[in-house]
Specification:
The structure is a single chain. By secondary structure, this protein is of the alpha+beta class. The chain has five domains: 2-21 and 371-423, no CATH class; 36-127, Immunoglobulin-like (Sandwich); 138-349, 3-Layer(aba) Sandwich (Rossmann fold); 431-522, Immunoglobulin-like (Sandwich), CATH 2.60.40; 527-650 and 667-676, no CATH class. It is 24% helix and 34% strand. The chain has 15 helices and 33 strands. Strand 27 and strand 28 (565-572) form a beta hairpin. Helix 1 (2-20) runs parallel beside helix 12, helix 10 packs parallel to helix 14 (598-605) and helix 10 runs antiparallel to helix 15 (619-635). The termini are far apart. The model is unreliable at 1-32, 347-354, 367-374, 478-485 and 609-613 (pLDDT under 50).
Amino acid sequence: MRRGFTAFAVLLCFVCFLAAGAKPVYGKTETDTGRFLGEMSLLKQDGSSYVMQVTVENGGEDFTGTVQAVFSGSRDNCAYETPITLAAQGKKQFTITVPERAVETVRGMCALNFLDEHGKVLQTVSLKNVFGNTVTGIPVGILSDNYSGLTYMDAGGNDFYLQSSGNPLQLVELTADNLSGYLDGLYFLVIDRYDTSSLGEENIARIQDWVKDGGWLIIGTGEYAKQTLSGFDEDFLGIDLLGVSEPGEDNAAARNAVRNGFYYSYTDSGVDFKQMAVADLDYLSAAKQQVGNYFESSENPGICGSLNEGAVSILFFSLGDEEMKKVNSSVVSYIYEETMYNSSSYQNINGSSNMEYVGQRALSFIDNRNTNLDFTGLKVLIAVYVVVVGPILYLILRKGKKSEWYWVCAPVLGMICIVGVFFFGQSARVNETKVYSVTAQQAGSSRADTYFLAYHSGVKPWSLRLNEGYDVAGPGWGGYYGYVNGSTSDYLYRVRNDGDGLTVGMKPRANFENGFLYAGRRSRESGAITAKNLKGSGAAATLSGTVKNGTDRDFAYMSVMFDGYIMVFSDVKAGETLDLAAAAKDGRCVFQEIVAYYDSLVYDMVSIYSSGNNMGYEQEAMAALLCGIGIAEDNQPGDTACARIVGVVKDYDKAVADKCSEKAWGCIYSYAEMEVKEHAAN
């Protein structure tokens, strides 16, 4: 009888092994220190991507494995892997292309990991200044004839918090000669007591483009206002200088500080605005010229606001004024903070820009979480039990004259099998990867970018093979909502380039985790979207004129948005010219609204929190359209009298080459000039 129960135990272990599945186990190996050398440098910047050149050397025996570049950001680590064979004493160079989002903390940690064929890290080489900038911390360019009088702008050496981490402000003394070499690496540019007209047209154009692309510009004025503002184009700042008060005279800054209690941080520091030369600036002139979005600050005596992707602060006084020697580090910090808070580039860095907010929330609407159970493994176990295990168990118990135990052992064994399926490897869950992709492309452009939400139900690292043509991939939008530590031995997002294509995936922190991913590629041109006689006013909720879908794709829905007013039309065929007013009368306008803030688009266009769809349009298509609207808003040109037109296409080109469940949508967007209708005030 003892032998009978021994056989039963063996069979039980065998069944549990089948349920769990065999898993290879690798033993620990000692770290191979000093064998490899590696370095990385910025080769070029290609749009919103960085092309990095990696150089590796092997000081030991022949090596076949993977070189993994890990960029550590404040939110997530990104690992870029390249398979490589490196002969003993050999040296190789290769490039990796990394999107901005993957290295948002460009002066953060970075390392090269050398992995063997089993994925075991043999050695880590820590890197510094991989972007070729010798400046550490947060670089601030100072363009002034009085640089020594502005050294206090380092905020006393205290950490300045940007991207959820603190770094000191590092001042860089600029001249007309070295400006272009430093500009792209700066976060802030401070101009004070400097004749900007002496910079020349080329340098002025660089500064203006730098601001529009996301730079943060701070200008001091006071008695030097005319010369400091003189070099900029009229359609760049659009600020008129009305005059400058002399020290000792009453001025607006002094009046506001006394009567309204403004600028208390300055007065608490002992600053007396009556002793300063204060400029009188007309920021309403900028609104008339449709330049920037300015307002007068109640915290800093000056004008600030957004300008395309960047932001500008123009202070009423010179930063080099003697009175400014009294301010403390917190006053200095807030000059910087207020400037960057007003820019969309700051919102991009911190994960809440128009594109990120609208696009990510729209993708989140799609419930692509697959929690269905896959009983395939359990069916196999049942078949094995019925055909093999059950009869053998019965014979063993019968031989031991314990056949009545069968009806006890059989259910227990069945429960053990089910438990094994669920809790050993979770093989009872569907491990199919689900993808919801939106490819955005400006009409007439050959560049297409795909943003997608991918989900895998397993807890192990997973990856997707992308279709041909993608040359860059990585995390997209906010991605993982938690934080990972700064260790370069770990990662969340993973991109692998094996020469034949890219794979992208994640290393989950918990079960049921999905990932917001991005991939960029060259694509064929889609044709043009053109408009004629577009007229409208967001405040009056009117849009008229014609829009032609000159692409080769049918639009399930097409949105036209201007001045905070949006109309969405259904079923605009390829080649069709749509009369907006007539189409609205025909019932083809399925959604229209004055958009007070982007939150309303998310809640009103897509019923995130409602269980049913009573809106008369397809929810998934509208979610994809929201992604396109966010991207078009984020990339729009500086002309404010510009309509954004976005068409969404069903069954667009798929992003993933692997077998998976993918819903692919395309958004083709364009811009058109508007004739603004005047409307009577209430």
